[in-house]
Design a protein that fits this description.
This protein is of the alpha/beta class and 417 residues long. It is built from 17 helices and 13 strands. The strands form three sheets. It has a six-stranded mixed sheet with strand order 8-9-10-11-13-12, sandwiched between helices. A five-stranded parallel sheet has the order 2-3-4-1-5, covered by helices on one side. Strands 6-7 form a two-stranded antiparallel sheet. Helix 8 crosses helix 14.
Length: 417
């Protein structure tokens, strides 16, 4: 496999045309450096500096102002390694406010880092780079989010040949480019094992002092076992015998370095019984699958937790699309005290919503729409459509504004006008 075409590459190039500083943020090994190098290669008088290099890092710490002085585009990789550079960058772009001055990459959410100066308000655009989406791997549309709001009830999809086993294989492959390129089985498993080791021994330690790294490793396994469920801190703390305050700090760290994402709960005055606990996903379903010991062979066992894996996979695909979708949409989940739930609630800036349920089965039943009907009845015209994504072959109508779609709709629907 060669290089994958990334949606973020186009977005970064557009941002550099009118913004002084562009930041590409994302987990380790998602392709930030590769993306930045492609942009640099097409830019005149561009220069690149890598802060993982000890000598380069020492030069940056010794004289930040001289380090960031350059007439063309300056790409600085892993900027969180020397956060004091941001004040020097601020002075430089205030002195010369031309767009396209700096392209920065980082493996942690920069504004969440400890001791990070609030240096660049109003001067930056941040682009979040997730692991590869299915559309980026297959070179197809990746337009589900835009399509469900632009096409409303006129969604159309040809029958899909993918089976439940195919979806499980895609979920376990994940989206880290190196994992995608490797053969499934031992070689891919070795990648994920090394990835976890680096997370605990390097990434977390770079941004926070944790006294017992083994606790973080154990927490990763607990989080993976709960992917797609509510992030109930008390219950998780009991599972690994950690104080709640410590567990909350560790979860914050894992979100800071893009390993997990907490999906906020949705509610309104029309759904007064809704609960407010966020839902937890692992940003890469392949990593999550490895952490719980899932394999394609084990997934054949009827008792294997395939449902949570595919739910995590589908939510992750939607979350990726929100970083490039043209429609202004936010992602939530819904659950109330009567145990009525909807896996994803997509809320448009105009106040309308789309509900999405994920089912691992190759057939779909009327009761699978229970949560979607609940929202439709309470929201009236605000509810655009309810969709059940399942592992079957064809699109099916289940009444007014209710549709079942093969899960592949996430990356094959095209929402472009």
């Amino acid at each position: 496999m060669g290089l994958f075409s990334r949606h973020a590459e186009r977005m970064a190039a557009e941002a550099l045309a009118d913004t002084r500083v562009v930041v590409v943020n994302g987990a380790r090994q998602v392709g930030k450096s590769t993306l930045a190098e492609l942009i640099v290669a097409r830019s005149d008088r561009a220069r690149e500096l890598y802060l993982d290099d000890q000598a380069v890092r020492a030069a940056a710490q010794a004289d930040p102002s001289a380090f960031v002085r350059h007439d063309g585009l300056l790409m600085i990789d892993e900027i969180q390694r020397v956060p004091e550079l941001l004040l020097a960058i601020k002075r430089e772009v205030d002195r010369d406010p031309r767009p396209g001055r700096f392209l920065l990459t980082g493996s942690a959410r920069l504004l969440g880092l400890r001791d990070l100066p609030d240096a660049l308000p109003g001067r930056t655009e941040t682009i979040e780079l997730w692991p590869l989406s299915q559309g980026e791997i297959d070179s197809v549309a990746d337009g589900f989010v835009d399509a469900v709001f632009r096409l409303d009830g006129s969604l159309g999809m040809v029958p899909c040949s993918l089976t439940k086993r195919d979806y499980v294989a895609r979920a376990l492959r994940g989206g880290y480019p190196e994992a995608v390129r490797r053969d499934p089985g031992r070689r891919r498993a070795r990648f994920f094992d090394s990835y976890v080791t680096d997370l605990v021994t390097r990434d977390v330690q770079q941004i926070s002092d944790i006294e017992r790294p083994a606790e973080m490793r154990r927490l990763l396994s607990v989080v993976a076992a709960r992917m797609g469920t509510l992030a109930v801190v008390r219950s998780m703390a009991n599972d690994i015998a950690l104080p709640r305050q410590t567990l909350t700090r560790y979860l914050d760290l894992l979100e800071l370095i893009f390993v997990i994402k907490r999906i906020p709960a949705w509610s309104s005055n029309l759904t007064t019984r809704a609960i407010s606990t966020p839902k937890l996903i692992v940003t890469d379903s392949g990593l999550g699958g490895r952490l719980i010991g899932m394999s394609e062979e084990r997934a054949k066992d009827p008792t294997a937790p395939v449902g949570p894996l595919l739910e995590n996979f589908a939510i992750g695909e939607v979350a990726r699309q929100l970083t490039w979708a043209e429609e202004p949409v936010q992602l939530f989940h819904y659950r109330d005290r009567d145990q009525v739930e909807v896996d994803m609630v997509l809320e448009h800036a105009d106040g309308t919503l789309v509900g999405v349920e994920v089912k691992a089965a190759e057939t779909v039943r009327a009761e699978d729409f229970r949560g979607l009907r609940h929202l439709a009845n309470r929201l009236g015209d605000r509810f655009r459509t309810g969709i059940v994504l399942y592992a079957g072959e064809q699109q099916l109508s289940f009444g007014h504004r209710l549709t079942a779609l093969p899960m592949a709709a996430l990356w094959t629907l095209d929402g472009r006008r």
